[in-house]
Every structure is written in structure tokens, then in C-alpha cells.
Amino acid sequence: MKFMKLGTRPDTFYTEEATRTVISDAPTDLIIKINNITYLIHKFPLLPNCGLLQRLCSNNADKISIELHDIPGGDEAFELCAKFCYGITINLSAHNFVSAFCAAKFLQMSEESTANGNFIAKLETFFLSCILAGWKDTIVALRSAVGLSEWSDNLGITRKCIDSIVEKILTPPPKVTWSYTYTRPGYNKKTHRSVPKDWWTEDIADLDVDLFRCIIVAISSTCMLPPPLIGEALHVYACRWLPDISAQSNSVKNRQILETLISLIPPDQESISVSFSLRLLSLANLLGASSVTKTEVIMRCSALLEEATVSDLLFASHSASNDDGGDEHCHDVDLVVAVLESFLMAWRRQSPAADENAQLLISIRKVGKLIDSYLQVVARDRTMPVAKMIYLAEALPEVARPNHDDVYKAINIFLKEHPYLSKADKKRLCRVLNCQKLSADVRAHAVKNERLPLRTVVQVLFFEQEKGNSKTSSRVAAASDELRSRPDEKLRRSASTRSRHKVAEADKDEMNTKHSLESRRNP
């Protein structure tokens, strides 16, 4: 970081209670009040350098009191200007330049109306030759201008800083010679000689969201950087300002940041990853973003859904409460449902018929596999309502599942984790199963699965008969013995009756099974 040292005299300002004065043999004749601080100083060093004070002290009174409560930068900035007038040593850097420059402008410390080589001229030289020439100096100066935004905007400081930052970001990486912050895991500047393309993203993430927006808009307007690089800058900013937030943590400011980031996403589909898109959607739900914002993010998530992994879909429900006081939280299935519905809507709109197009068939089956794998995870959550489980399982079209092994596993896990589920809910949950699409191994497991409703087990057995499997009779007998062992008296009687008549009335049972399967296929 660059510094500028002005003045040679030692610091002779000292404080008594709320009063700042300077050690001198001459009595003070100028009183400056700034908020709760009072300065007892001298006219002579200040008036020749400050046009404003010259006009305010034009009555030639022996001792004058002036209130400067609205000076930009407050008492600290004023003291820098006062020390410059006294010739006291001051050190200027990007940290205090903006406040000093604005205060000097306020006091009219220019060469046109006062002494040659005045404070403003020296500050302008330092700004143009040192601060704007450096990367981090410009970032620091721009960040320090936030509290003085009106002054820094009017004086052109903000615009010049932004232009300098944008110019450096657009510099080809091999020509980057200045220092920058880059803390990605696994990256080591000593071993990586080349400058990474996203070298600039962490430093600008320290800026206020409005300044950040100005920089991203300026960069995007040049069309010189690829959209994924812009997306990476948005991702870094989100990680910096929206890491782990709750609805109670400054939600207004966080919502502003979130909606700004979403508005800055390039239209290109590959500009941000599906995991980042889904996280933005989760934050939008948490922070109460506008419906327009949510819809925009949902559409982007749905366009990338087939690229997602199960871990990308796992978010805690913001409205869930844990009844037993433990650490479990219900997963945000509503988020996944919203994205899936948007995906299916777009998938069905495509032509030719979605289920006849090879590429679209691959797409829907990738999503089907993803959702069934997701169901296997959320099924372990004991707080998961069965209605949400059923709704998501039934949302997929038939063509999305070439086989039903994965959805069977999800249902089996859910039944295991929810042992007190009612018979009616078990039947509704198992209704999604198509026994004809179960593999032989899964059917073998199903006929012995005590968690399944009897009706589902019988459907599996009927399908075994329909296939004419040579092992049907032995499986029927084994299943009947298994069913008889169930504690429910009604189930035992049903199992006994069905086992006596199953082989003798195969044709009749086959017709009943076909009708039952058809009704489940088209509920």
C-alpha cells in the first residue's frame, strides 16, 4: 500500500476532556466545534489555507467560534487538514484519503483561492499517481468512500475508482503485476506461476453491494469476460456476505444483497452452477424475496436440474420445527418440488413429443434417477410428512423411471423410519410402485417385506405368476407362509385363503392384477 508523508513538525495536538488544542506560546484565537469535539487553535496557520474559514472570520474579531458539524469525515478529517496547515507530520493512505480530500474540499483548501501547493493539489496528485495506480489501494479507497458517498460521487472519486478497477479486471491475466487476494483451497502462488482468471473476485467482494453492482455491470457491458467468470464473482460475493444466515439476521440488507446478485446473473445457462442456483433459491425463500425473483431462480435451477447431485438438493426446511427437541430438521422438499415442476413444464413443452425424443428421454431419466435418490435420503428423516413424500414420488411421469427399484428402496426406507404409519398412508405411498418394473431381486425382497401392505405383496406375486416363472409356486408358498406369520389376524386369514386358491384360480387372479396395475398406473 502506498503512503504519502506531509509536514515535518512533531505532533503537538493534545486532548483535555472533549477539547483538542495545540501546544504553542501564542494564545489560541479560533474555536472550531465539530459535534462533541472542540478545537482551540490559531487563525494564522489555517486561514491562509482555508477559503471557507477566511470568509467566516472576515469580521476581524479577536476570537471567533465556528461550528462545522457538517464537515465530511468529521473531526478526524478536520484534524488532518489542521495539521497540514501547522506543518505537522501526517501520513496519508488509501484508508484516510477520501475523508481528507472531502474535508479539504469542504474547507476550500485549493490553490486558486489560497496558498500555492495547498492540500487539495497534493491530495489529487497522490490519488492519481499512487492510489489509482494500485489494485488494493483503489479497492480500499472505494470502500472507505461508502460513508461519504454523496461527496465522493460529486467529486468524481467513486467513478474514477470504479473505472480503474474495471480496467484492471479486464487486463489479461499474464499482464497482471499487482498483488491481489486469492485464498482458494489448494492454490499456492509459489507453485502456480500463472495468474488465475478469477484473481480479482475476492478483493471486490469486500465492497458494498451497490459498488459491487456498479463494477459487475461495467464489466458485463464490455462483453470481454466469459459469463462463468462473472458468475464466479457473484458466487464469491455470496459466500462473503451470505454464508450462514437466518431469517432474523439483518434480513432487509441480506435480501437486498441477494436480489442484487440474482439481477446480475448473466442470461447464459452456464454462467452459474446448479448448486449455487439452488442455494440462491433457498436463500430467496428464507429472506422473503419477491415472487419475480423466486420465479427467475426456479427457472434457472430447473434448466440445470439434470446436472445436480443429491447433495445439491439437500436444504433444511425454513419452516420446519423439531417436535422432539433433537437436531433433526425436515428437508425442504417444497424447494425440490418447485424446481421439478418447472423442469417438467419445460420438458413437456418441447417438441417433438418429449417421450419420443432420445435426448429428452435421457434428460428426464437422469432427473428421475436424481429424484429417487433424493427420496432415499429424505426418507430417513423421521419428521418428513408422508404427504410430501407421496407428492414428490408421484410427480415424475412414468417414462422417467425405466425401473422402479430406486423408488422401492426409498419407500422401504421411509416405512422403516416411520413404523407407526397408518395402513391407509402405507397404501397411498406404495401406490406409486409398478410391480412390473421391479427387478427379480427386488421382487424377491418385496414378497418377504413385512413393512409393505399386503395388497402390494400380492401384486408382486401376481406378476410373478403372469410371467410364468418356473419358481412361482415355490415363491407363492413361501410368501404365504411369510404372510401367515404376520401378527394381524385379518392378514393371516387373507394369506391362508389366497395361498389355497392362488394356483387353481390363476387366470382369474391374472385379470384382477392387470386391472389393479392399470388403475395404479393411471390414478
UniProtKB/TrEMBL annotation:
InterPro entries from the UniProt entry: NPH3/RPT2-like, NPH3_dom, SKP1/BTB/POZ_sf
Residue ranges of the region described as Disordered: 473-523
Record's compositionally biased regions (Basic and acidic residues): 481-492, 502-523
Listed GO biological process terms: protein ubiquitination
Sorted UniProt keywords: Ubl conjugation pathway
UniProt feature coiled coil, ranges: none
All residue ranges annotated as the NPH3 domain in the record: 198-467
Top-level taxon of origin: Eukaryota
Pathway(s) the chain acts in: Protein modification; protein ubiquitination
Family: Belongs to the NPH3 family.
Protein name: BTB/POZ domain-containing protein At5g47800-like isoform X2
